[in-house]
Design brief:
Elements (H helix, E strand, L loop, with lengths): L14 H16 L6 H11 L2 H11 L9 H12 L4 H11 L8 H12 L8 H13 L1
Protein name: Retrotransposon gag domain-containing protein
C-alpha cells in the first residue's frame, strides 16, 4: 500500500498547526479503501515521527498509543497543545476585527472566516459572522 508522505509532526506546534497537519492525513486515509480504524491509528503513529510518538506514549500512559483510537490520539494531542484560554483569546481577536480603510470587503470577509474558524461559536456561527461583518464595516 502506498505510504503517506507527511513530514514529522512538530510537537512544539500550535493546536492550529496540528489541525493543519491532521487534515491531509485524514484526506489520505479517505483515499484508502478498506482502511479500518486500527490501521488508521497504526499509519498515524508511523507518520508522526519519533518525537510525537514519544509524546503520545507519555500522554497515553499506562495505555499504549496503538491501543487507542485515532480520534483519542488526536484529542490527546490537541488538548496538550491548545492553551486553556485559546477559545476566549480567539473570540476576542474576532470581535476586534474591523475592515481597513482600503481593504476590499471580500478580503475582510475572508479575514473574518479565517478567525471565526478558531472561535467554536457552534450554532451561533452565522449570527456572529453577520454581526461582526456589519460592525466591522461601519
Amino acid at each position: 500500500m502506498e505510504s503517506c508522505n507527511l513530514e514529522n509532526l512538530n510537537i512544539h506546534a500550535s493546536a492550529r498547526e496540528v489541525e493543519y497537519y491532521r487534515e491531509p492525513f485524514e484526506i489520505w486515509c479517505i483515499t484508502r479503501k478498506g482502511l479500518d480504524e486500527e490501521r488508521k491509528t497504526a499509519y498515524f503513529l508511523t507518520v508522526i515521527g519519533k518525537d510525537a510518538y514519544s509524546l503520545l506514549k507519555n500522554m497515553a500512559f499506562p495505555d499504549s498509543p496503538i491501543s487507542l483510537s485515532y480520534e483519542s490520539l488526536k484529542t490527546l494531542l490537541l488538548k496538550h497543545l491548545q492553551p486553556a484560554n485559546f477559545e476566549t483569546a480567539e473570540r476576542a481577536k474576532f470581535h476586534s476585527l474591523t475592515r481597513g480603510e482600503c481593504q476590499p470587503v471580500c478580503d475582510f470577509i475572508l479575514q473574518l472566516q479565517t478567525q471565526v474558524s478558531r472561535c467554536n461559536f457552534g450554532n451561533q456561527l452565522q449570527t456572529q459572522l453577520r454581526d461582526r461583518l456589519i460592525a466591522g464595516i461601519i
